[in-house]
Amino acid sequence: MNKQVATLKDEFSIFNEKVNKLSEKINKLEEKITEKDKEIKDLSTKTIHLGKYVISNAKSGENYFNMTATNGQTILTSELYSSKSACTNGIESVRKNCDDDNNYECKLSANKKHYFNLKASNGQVIGKSELYESEAGMENGIASVKKNGKSTTVIEE
User: What is the distance between the alpha carbons of residues 14 and 93, in angstroms, rounded to a whole number?
Assistant: First the structure.
């Protein structure tokens, strides 16, 4: 019987060691979960900074918008609209159509500068880019419209 008690004590000791090791592993996993939860919280509170749309009035009384990148540079200028609501619809059209490569029409001006038009799915021009010295510059402009086009920031001047 003493031998059985000694064996049970040994087995209990081994079992206790295993429990302690598992408890340590659980604590480490809980720490990792806490770290990951913090990372997720930090990521979810970060704001993705996009450009903005600036609605302005033309001398004719019509409205237009410029899309500006985060650095403030104008990357797309709209056509003229008869009302502010039509101008706002134009902005929505940019948001809807800016991701599709097929909606970009690359052109060359009379003075050999590159530019592009962003068109709606019906083929109507929504906006025109600035003039670029190179095709690569124009491609960067298209990439900027794609990046900033989803912006929900609209400012009226």
Answer: 70
Buried b / exposed e along 13-36 (16+ C-beta atoms within 10 A): eeeeeeeeeeeeeeeeeeeeeeee
* Structure token digits, residue 101: 């490569």
Over residues 65-101, the pLDDT tens digits come to 999 998 889 999 999 999 999 999 999 999 999 999 9
- Structure-token pair, residue 25: 């592993």
Measured CA to CA, the distance from residue 143 to residue 47 in angstroms comes to 20
For the whole prediction, is pTM greater than 0.85?
Answer: no
Helix boundaries (H) for 46-156: 84-97, 135-148
Assigned token pair, 128 = 């025109």
